[in-house]
Write a structure and sequence with these properties.
The protein is α/β, with parallel strands linked by helices. The chain has helices at about 40-45, 60-75, 90-100, 115-125, 225-235, 245-255, 265-280, 280-300, 330-340, 370-385; strands spanning about 5, 10-15, 85-90, 105-110, 135, 155, 160, 165, 180-185, 200-205, 215-220, 305-310, 320-325, 355-360. Helix 1 packs across helix 7 (about 265-280), helix 2 packs parallel to helix 7 and helix 8 (about 280-300) packs parallel to helix 10 (about 370-385). Bound molecules: pyridoxal-5'-phosphate. Pyridoxal-5'-phosphate (PLP) binds near residues 32, 92 and 205.
Length: about 375
């Protein structure tokens, strides 16, 4: 099957064919964009002439946005006075919108990897905000928020996708009563459990646990967060229209977006949320991720050459697993390349972490049986490379 071929580096990929009986049914293990369920793509194809290519200001598309918003409300078991707000640009653009329209004066950030550090940098660069307080730990663990008077926004990350560390969402003790807890749940939303009473803004993009495509941001917002958004928007701070959260909220309440969204992304996300809800909701999806996590971490702990990167089992993510390989035995980049040549893709580590590591998505769309099959494929490839 795989002849010697060039990877993006210079070394050729060894010609190793994984026996078909070992292969997963679906070979997509990337952390985003991640596996989109074929059933969702079929549902999109079925409405290719009636939904795609139609106006986002008309009922067909607005109904789909409405289904997505109500599906998320029930999946997260949100209180009645919460709202689902959405807009274009993905999480990265939402960070800019949060600098303009959510952080009042000073935020506190837990920084423990690439994504959590990025939002802190956005705030740091915003001249109208005070320097953020940044609590950092080395990759592989997470800091704990510290309630402090004067901090109006706490920036937490439910799952740090670059390192495979997940943290519980808990409102910091001692926080000011009107402080907002804002959670980056980009890779967690739909795969990890959380209690909405412990936060005010739970935001994400749909190309990870929601098995859709990128380019959209979504946020579940509490009355406290909505009040903050409206107060800042009504003040004299300059806010670009496309980054105005009050405008986004207004459009979302009408099941629209301020400017044109990607209709396919909305349908695929809706399909995934309804699939989760039809099967038992977030608890079901999270349990499915628990099964995959148990499979991959138990395998690594029993392995002679693989080890979970996150040493504290309570911090190990159940949606993104990071597995170190013994560099004396095998080069993880070569393992990932051989897997890729066999159709098992995107197990590469997060490059900036610089470890001899595989990073494997365990999102709800990914069949736990396929995660088990992946471990057998890795064993086979390492056996061939090292043997
Ligand atoms: C992927 C990811 C982002 C970036 O999302 P975009 O939609 O690409 O901007 C931010 N935070 C976390 C935790 C992520 O996993």
């Amino acid at each position: 099957m795989a002849r010697v071929r060039e990877t993006c580096d210079v070394s050729p990929t060894p010609d190793i064919t994984i026996p078909p009986s070992l292969l997963p049914a679906d070979g997509r293990f990337g952390c985003g964009p991640s596996k989109v369920r074929p059933e969702a793509v079929d549902a999109l194809a079925a409405v290719s002439r009636t939904y795609l290519g139609t106006s986002h200001r008309q009922a067909t598309v607005k109904d789909m946005v409405g289904r997505l918003r109500s599906g998320l409300t029930s999946m997260f078991s949100l209180p009645d006075d919460w709202e689902i707000v959405l807009g274009n640009g993905g999480t990265t653009v939402l960070w800019d919108a949060l600098c303009f329209g959510l952080v009042d004066r000073q935020s506190q950030h837990l920084s423990f990897g690439e994504f959590s550090s990025k939002f802190a940098s956005c705030v740091q660069a915003a001249p109208w905000l005070a320097d953020p307080e940044v609590l950092a730990t080395d990759p592989g663990s997470h800091p704990t928020p510290v309630g402090r008077s004067g901090v109006d926004t706490y920036a937490l990350t439910h799952n740090e996708t670059s390192t495979g560390v997940a943290m519980p969402i808990v409102r910091p003790r001692g926080a000011d009563p009107d402080a907002v807890v804002a959670v980056d749940a980009t890779s967690a939303a739909g795969g990890l459990r959380f209690d909405p009473t412990e936060c005010d803004l739970y935001y994400f993009a749909p190309q990870k646990s929601l098995a859709s495509d990128g380019g959209l941001w979504l946020a579940a917002a509490s009355p406290t967060a909505l009040e903050r958004i409206e107060r800042i928007a009504a003040g004299d701070r300059y806010i670009p229209a496309s980054l105005n959260l009050s405008t986004a909220r207004d459009n979302s309440s009408k099941n629209q977006t301020y400017n044109t969204p990607a209709l396919a992304t909305i349908l695929l996300a809706t399909h995934q949320v309804e699939w989760i809800n039809d099967n038992g909701g977030l608890e079901w999806a999270a349990t499915r991720c628990d099964t995959s996590a148990d499979t991959i971490y138990s395998w690594a702990e029993a392995s002679t050459y693989a080890t979970p990167f996150v040493t504290d089992p309570t911090m190990r993510s159940h949606v993104v697993a990071t597995i170190d390989l013994d560099s004396a035995v095998v080069d993880a980049n070569v393992v990932a390349a051989v897997l890729r040549a066999n159709g098992v893709v995107d197990t590469d580590s997060y490059r900036k972490l610089g470890r001899n590591q595989l990073r494997i998505a365990l999102f709800p769309a990914i069949d736990p049986e396929d995660v088990a099959a992946l471990t057998r494929c890795i064993d086979h490839v390492v056996g061939e490379l090292a043997g």
